[in-house]
Amino acid sequence: MSSATLPAASETQSMTGAEIVLRALKEQGVEVIFGYPGGAVLPIYDAIFNQNAIRHILVRHEQAAVHAAEGYARSTGKVGCVLVTSGPGATNAVTGLVDALLDSIPIVCLTGQVPTHLIGNDAFQEADTTGITRPATKHNYLVKQMDKLASTVHEAFYVARSGRPGPVVIDLPKDILIGKGQYTPPPSQEHRSYRPQTEPDAVQIRKAVRLLKEAKRPVVYAGGGVINAGPEASALLTKFVRMAGLPCTNTLMGLGAYPSSDPQFLGMLGMHGTVEANLAMHGCDVMFNIGARFDDRVTGRLNAFAPNSVKIHADIDPSSINKNVKVEVPIVGDAAAVLRALIAAWDADEAKQDRPSLAEWWRQIDEWRGKNCLAYVQDSKIIKPQHAVKRLYELTKESGRETFITTEVGQHQMWAAQYFGFEKPNRWMTSGGLGTMGYGLPAAMGVQVAHPDALVIDIAGEASILMNIQEMSTVAQYRLPVKVFILNNQYMGMVRQWQELLHGGRYSESYSEALPDFVKLAESFHGVGMRAESTDDLDRVIREMIAIDRPVIVDVAVDEKENVFPMIPSGAAHNEMLLAPGQIAAGAGVTDEGTALV
Amino acid sequence: MPDPTDNSFRAATIAVLVENESGVLARVIGLFSGRGYNIDSLTVAPVDAEGKLSRITVVTSGTEMVIEQIKAQLDRLVPVHKVADLTLEGPHLNRELALIKVAGSGSARQEALRLADAFRARVVDATTESFVFEMTGSGEKLDAFINLMRPIGLVEVSRTGVVSIARGTKAL
């Protein structure tokens, strides 16, 4: 480099690696970091101390830092940012990283590392972070040269948010953070090798349009990819589904992509999906999958999945196409771009829809709807968990507050998905792919940080909530008025349900023994605790919870024997659903092969 | 285009052009082991120092759907520039190099030399009791020669694994 192109001495010499990192984060639009300090990242904490542009939220466990960043990312559409130390800091973050990987959530996680000269020496708090997180991330980096530092941070954000989003780790040795170097702005040219396709192929779009127009029994199956493509994609999905008059179902990850109150919405599909959604999938002749990945929780037994259908699959990740299910019309592209192209091509295509067949299909769907598969009987003072979620939904709607829901994992999660309606995207945060108990409370923290005035509720189970209960302390410190709504059935309910249905009722280790007093627990963490023992208490407690501008734990004692229905047992097909007792079961029960599945 | 509904296994030689950076081979290998794909052979070496590119050749096998999946999974790794299924794309050359140590004396020694000559293996090291042959060719040819050397006094084999390139003017 000639001296003429060298920046001023103050530019080159005055910045430490830690300052470079913070400047790059700021330039990437980071407003909040969720983190936990430790020896290897102290230089970054020093740099944080000396600035006001980026806020740091101190969590109580690194796993929670990642989940909080996920909640932040999923409710805003931005990249979530995490900062943890080397060794245990990084290994604690791994669960969160895999969670973000499976649910395609954009996260950049900075991990401290021992100084470069000690790497490989089993130094104190050393772990092979890039080795450990390689299969846990979309991509990861170990920065060993000062001149790569700023460009690596910029690249990490590009990778995290581009294509199918995901978590990215940057491992930062302490000597790099302390050393002096030069900041470089984000590159103006394209990435050398990673350039995902976002615009769909026009020929494939025309094929899809023709198939959907001529379909007699079409169905739209929309997933988290639509949410990830931004709110515009959800609006386009709604527009397309309405203009074409198609039935639409959402995956667990896709809830909110299509308004739940719309008459064309069939509810969620899959293992605990509605009868109408699953039977529409089973009986369709043309399926349009957008932004979903034919997950095993959705397809059931593969050789019986939508057996007489032609399938169109639009996904931004080519590796999701033809992975589990062979499709006839693959479309690679961003969900919003695909829907935009589809709407344009729909108008341009001269073929007419088969209206009489479509009307007949809707008549059939309405008949399935008539089974009212989510009906439950609230016939005593003992609160049914479904009723608790339904009242929570109705009373939050009544409050008029902007509401965000997170969940833990298990029965309560499924009831939340079934009975809480979502009209808009980015309002529903749940651990879909990894199924991480302990996700909901930290995720709710992240949502509340991003939306300080909104009503943020973690619908929880009494077992899951204990997995990251320490975050009540974070919630208290930052005065985040997060609400924890526990459906307390004193069991790991989903485990108990499977033991009941698949393991002869041998409830091995699934009883929630020695539970804390959640009211006192809330109080000990400077929050408000409430308990609903019977249906008489429920509405009052929910109303109070909504009104209180502080962290609240509501402990709702629910019927401990209640199971989640409908249910497609593992290894069964969509038309082999188990319905609630008292409803006519279409089920063939669980096969031996099914028992071996999860 | 291959028929995606075909469930029979086929072999595939896949060429992968990658960024020459630390960890890239681990990503590729981790992908294969993590997702349960076969690796029959894998080679890697830098091929473009200026462009900082390395070329990986993987020989694998699976159903059409699995091989498509392998290519798609490789292609979405961030440091991967290009992925090509040479088996599918047309005529291509597969070559492997082996160093083969054979020990013996008398007629065995002469027999080894005669066979080496027939197989166009070169003698690259010799003592009064041993030879090291260098041989290049398809895997099958190498296998055939090595099997012939076994009763004669095969001591040790070192093989590179397959490298592959398309015939004609076409490049990756």
Automatic annotation (TrEMBL), chain A:
Which GO BP terms apply? isoleucine biosynthetic process; L-valine biosynthetic process
Q: Thiamine pyrophosphate enzyme TPP-binding domain location, by residue?
A: 409-556
Please give the cofactor(s) recorded in the UniProt entry for this protein: Mg(2+); thiamine diphosphate
Asked whether the keyword Flavoprotein is assigned, the reply is: yes
Which PANTHER family does the UniProt entry name for this protein? ACETOLACTATE SYNTHASE CATALYTIC SUBUNIT, MITOCHONDRIAL, THIAMINE PYROPHOSPHATE ENZYMES
Q: Which organism is it from?
A: Teichococcus oryzae
Keyword list, A-Z: Amino-acid biosynthesis, Branched-chain amino acid biosynthesis, FAD, Flavoprotein, Magnesium, Metal-binding, Thiamine pyrophosphate, Transferase
- Protein name per its UniProtKB record: Acetolactate synthase
Documented EC number(s): 2.2.1.6
**Pathway membership, UniProt:** Amino-acid biosynthesis; L-valine biosynthesis; L-valine from pyruvate: step 1/4; Amino-acid biosynthesis; L-isoleucine biosynthesis; L-isoleucine from 2-oxobutanoate: step 1/4
From TrEMBL, chain B:
Q: Does the keyword Ribosomal protein apply?
A: no
Its UniProt entry gives the catalysed reaction(s) as: 2 pyruvate + H(+) = (2S)-2-acetolactate + CO2
Q: Which Pfam families match?
A: ACT_AHAS_ss (PF22629), ALS_ss_C (PF10369)
List GO BP terms, alphabetically: isoleucine biosynthetic process; L-valine biosynthetic process
| Ranges where the ACT domain occurs | 13-88
**Domain of life from the UniProt record:** Bacteria
Q: What class of enzyme is it?
A: transferase
Q: Name one GO cellular component term.
A: cytosol
Q: According to the UniProt entry, what is the EC number of this protein?
A: 2.2.1.6
| InterPro entries linked to this entry | Acetalactate_synth_ssu, Acetolactate_synth/TF_NikR_C, Acetolactate_synth_ssu_C, ACT-like_dom_sf, ACT_dom, AHAS_ACT, AHAS_small-like_ACT
Pathway-wise, it operates in: Amino-acid biosynthesis; L-isoleucine biosynthesis; L-isoleucine from 2-oxobutanoate: step 1/4; Amino-acid biosynthesis; L-valine biosynthesis; L-valine from pyruvate: step 1/4
Keyword annotations of the record: Amino-acid biosynthesis, Branched-chain amino acid biosynthesis, Transferase
Which molecular-function annotation in GO is an example for this chain?
acetolactate synthase activity
Kindly give the NCBIfam families that the UniProt entry links to this protein.
acolac_sm, PRK11895.1
What biological function has been recorded for the protein in this entry?
A: Catalyzes the conversion of 2 pyruvate molecules into acetolactate in the first common step of the biosynthetic pathway of the branched-amino acids such as leucine, isoleucine, and valine.
> Which proteins does it associate with, and in what oligomeric form?
Dimer of large and small chains.
Family listed: Belongs to the acetolactate synthase small subunit family.
Q: Can you say what this protein is called? A: Acetolactate synthase small subunit
Q: What species was this sequence derived from?
A: Teichococcus oryzae
Give the gene name. ilvN
